[in-house]
Amino acid sequence: MRLSTIGLLVTFVCGLFLVPVAAQTQPAGTVPRIGVLLAGPPPSTPDWKQHSPLLQALRALGYVEGQNMAVEYRFAGGRYEPVPELAADLVRLRVDVIVTYGTVVTQAAMQATTTIPIVMANSSYPVETGLVASLAQPGGNVTGVASIGPEQVGKQLEFPG
Q: What is the pTM of this model?
């Protein structure tokens, strides 16, 4: 799946959380905050935010970083060891939603919070790894986009009747 597609799907799911947050639970004068947790290093190009699929899709929905939303980025520098502490840091900041990329990163976010919504992108086998109860009914505080797993393979092999 192309990163732009993942960005759009994650943005849609974030929108499900951000619109109610912005409309109902934010005190006047505050903006919703997204926590983005990634195992990789920070992007090396200065204009990377202009090309971020997530931020592009949010802009299309009317959300502009620094104007009506804030984004807290946490990068683990290509190592998994700091990911749990980075997830805990986002929880301490009380972000409104955490966006993760990958199974290990999503698991770390789940261990850090059971109340902040977590939107995963590209997590493998989310049911088998305990990220969600099922693809149809994720349960808990995790939802999002998963890479191929057994439930999806079965759906891909179905023929129209």
A: 0.78
